[in-house]
Design brief:
globular; 7-stranded mixed β-sheet
């Protein structure tokens, strides 16, 4: 039976361009207990591919593009192509790793092979090793779809044993078979004709894009000026190669800010991002007065509507208050905009996500990016995905995991996308930026630390005010 891509998955494939690859990923830092064993990682991946059938399949298009592509087994699957070994030059600094990640995520995945890659990067300071993965968004479409790097994670130092069954690829369809199956599907489900026509038009648009670049660019500039209230360097006029930076802050500090000023952990993280964006815009001469704001898309994991459904993702569009100089007021404004989500009772916390499996954070980052990719890039300027992760130690092929940074895709016309995940008492940020529009993204990573400290400095002041209020008979506010 034909295993046809869903309309959404097919749209991601057709919508991808060489300059705007649509893959998600992550950087997992491990600390080997002794000499690092590269082959052990390869063996773990090989053992677990039985749980990941999509990771040994390729996409075949239907001649004429009058039906959606199909998944077929890769008869020439080569694990050594997908799991690659690399090394950093001495001294193997975090900055060097970020530069390598930027180069890796700038390259689209090879469409003639299964759509994922895992790089094992040795040579980091202190003998650490990085696992850098790329997984196409078409592969991660739901809870239960596993990110390849997360597939090698375990809750103990002893990798979980899985039943290994010999893999025998099924025979691939011929061109005639693809056409016959497509015609049969169209006859059985007339609605397929609409999806096929839409995807055919998407493919046609790609073909003629080169001839219309100049006119489209002019029209896009006009639309931006009308639809966006704040012009800033966060908008990239043309897509360029990617650049990556990472940082982390204390989760305890974030929680202390929440306890002092209210809201949620996610609100505090958004306020920290707002503070960093404000400082970055000021340093680049962007307007941050007169109610200036930055339209920000915030995908959030939510509980299912019906019992038995899996958790999913909804997106909230908020205005980051970059014109507000007070860090506390920025937090309150963010909390007010996110309050409807908090009151809905559908938000999923870290404990609930753990019940979904060790791979839930990576999957939900991917799903959040998919939601963002389906919206017009002109409807928002910045994507921020935040998924709570496990607070207990994880292991990758037996070695302890020290850190994990998410890598979210950057859509055309944007200069920055932000992903963050909490793990073992830290909040890890990954920043994907347009190299031409935001070459100093490493400075933005430093501004995250500054914005966190700025908010943390207000915690003592807030507690002092509450104690003073309580002494004067206003203790109800402290009880809340």
């Amino acid at each position: 039976m034909t295993d046809r891509l869903t309309p959404t998955d097919a749209a991601f494939l057709y919508g991808e361009e060489p300059s705007t690859p649509l893959h998600v990923g992550g950087v997992v830092i491990v600390e080997p207990k002794g000499d690092f064993d590269f082959q052990r990682v390869v063996d773990v991946v090989s053992q677990r591919l039985g749980e990941l059938p999509r990771f040994r399949q390729v996409v075949r298009t239907v001649p004429g593009h009058f039906a959606r592509p199909v998944w077929v087994d890769d008869a020439h699957f080569d694990l050594t192509y997908h799991v690659r070994r690399s090394s950093l030059p001495h001294p193997g600094s975090a900055r060097q790793l970020d530069e390598l990640v930027g180069r890796l995520i700038s390259r689209p995945l090879d469409r003639s092979r299964p759509l994922w890659e895992l790089y094992i990067v040795e040579g980091l300071e202190g003998g650490r090793v990085a696992l850098v993965n790329k997984t196409h968004e078409a592969l991660v479409s739901r809870i239960g779809a596993v990110d390849i790097a997360a597939a090698v994670l375990d809750e103990t130092a002893y990798p979980q044993q899985v039943r290994v069954t010999p893999w025998i690829p099924g025979p691939g369809p011929s061109e005639v078979d693809l056409v016959v199956d497509a015609v049969a599907d169209l006859a059985a489900r007339p609605s397929e004709a609409f999806d096929a026509a839409r995807l055919w038009m998407a493919n046609l648009r790609q073909t003629v894009t080169g001839a219309l670049n100049t006119g489209a660019a002019m029209a896009d500039v006009a639309r931006r000026s009308m639809l966006r209230s704040t012009r800033s360097s966060m908008s990239a006029a043309t897509p360029g190669p990617r650049i990556f930076a990472a940082t982390d802050v204390s989760l305890a500090t974030v929680k202390s800010i929440r306890a002092a000023h209210g809201g949620t952990v996610n609100d505090v993280i958004l306020a920290i991002v707002a503070g960093a964006v404000r400082s970055w815009m000021l340093s680049h001469g962007d307007p941050v007065t007169g109610g200036a704001s930055l339209a920000t898309l915030v995908p959030m994991s939510v509980r299912p509507d019906e019992p038995g459904d899996s958790a999913g993702v909804v997106s909230y569009l908020i205005d980051l208050p970059v014109s507000e100089p007070s860090p506390v007021l920025r937090l309150h404004q963010v909390s007010f905009q996110m309050e409807s989500h908090t009151q809905s009772g559908r938000q999923v916390g870290a404990d609930a996500l753990l019940a979904l499996g060790r791979f839930a954070p990576a999957t939900l980052h991917a799903m959040g990016a998919r939601v963002a990719g389906q919206l017009s890039r002109r409807s928002y300027d910045l994507l921020v995905t935040n998924v709570p992760g496990p607070q207990r130690r994880l292991y990758a092929a037996g070695d302890p995991v020290a850190a994990m940074y998410p890598v979210v895709p950057l859509v055309k016309g944007h200069a920055l996308a932000v992903g963050c995940t909490s793990y073992r008492g830290r909040v890890y940020f990954g920043f994907t930026a347009d190299r031409d529009a935001m070459p100093d993204v490493i400075d933005f990573a430093d501004l995250i630390a500054d914005a966190t400290s700025e908010l943390a400095d207000t915690v003592g002041e807030s507690r002092g005010r509450r104690r003073q209020t309580a002494r004067h008979g206003g203790g109800r506010s402290e009880a809340r």
